[in-house]
Amino acid sequence: EDLLNFTPLPINDRIKLGLVAVYLQKFTAEKNWKKLRCIPAGDWMRKYAGEKAYKVIWNPLLRGKFGKHADSVSMSWLWSRLYLRSKSRNGLNEELVYLDGGFKTLIDKLLLELKNKKVNLHPHTDLQEIKPKKNQGLSLHFLQGQTLNYDRVIVTTPNPIFAKLCPSLPEKYLDRLNKVKYRAAMVLVLQLKKQFMKDVYWLNISDTNSPLLAVVEHTNFVSPEKYAGSHLLYAGAYPGQTDKLMTMNKVKLFDLIVNELKKINPQFNKRWIQKHWIFRDKFAQPIVDTNYHTYIPPVKTGIPNLYLVNMSQVYPEDRGTNQAVRDGKKIAESIIAGAL
Hints:
Layout: H1 11-27, H2 41-48, H3 51-66, H4 75-84, E1 88-89, E2 92-93, H5 103-116, E3 127-132, E4 138-142, E5 147-150, E6 153-155, H6 159-165, H7 171-179, E7 182-192, E8 202-204, E9 214-217, E10 231-237, H8 244-247, H9 250-264, E11 273-286, E12 306-308, H10 321-336
Helix pairs in contact: 1-4, 2-3
């Protein structure tokens, strides 16, 4: 229904785009996605969805997500985004859900369970280096001077951080780590007195001149009653690691985004804002190009009993909570079973 009412595209293009989406969601078997690995997403969409659909929808979204790398993004990645987020897959209905109380509820419960099981936790410590030992164990050296020894170590950091933490990794493995490039992420979270967008949960920004990629009003999905009547708004983007959104001071960044939000809702002003938070991360989105499948770092690092599990390995899927839980559980079960 939303697509049929999308007037920036002529009706014929809307129908064609809808058929392409249905094809990718319903009729492309998982075993066939590898055929799409070496095809740029933009080229595929131009061919099958049409030039207008590409120009109005896919080009702005790909450039917002991957910037100057948009033309080389693999169609297998875009297929995964559409296919895995379809409403019904393999007989299962997939839904967007909210964890009551937020992720802090989950984290607090996990920490409690770990403490109850006598697991040693070391928060607020800065890891300096991971070193293999002669007996195939591993030692973790911290800036605070502490050294801890383990039989097995699972690393979940982004690839560039892992490469710095463990310079003794095999050269071929380090090469794979270094080949994976990343886009950064920036998000401004606003606690508002008023609703910003009526009946809109997620708004993609297709204006390539805008610094924002998406504006999400969380309390249009979850009731503001969960937040003492306040409204929560997320304004985010995937800039390059050295772009101004990542380097400018937070006061100027805040003003820049507020001015962008006024373009969406002219009535919006700073008096609506009760609190705000800015978050930035340099390693938010792996750049999934048409050669990506050839250099994904494997879980086994080449150093005995040292493993890597992170979002660069979920290809062709996009990074997400589901994949993190799945892969964490998988490696734990494999280690327990002696399969690694």
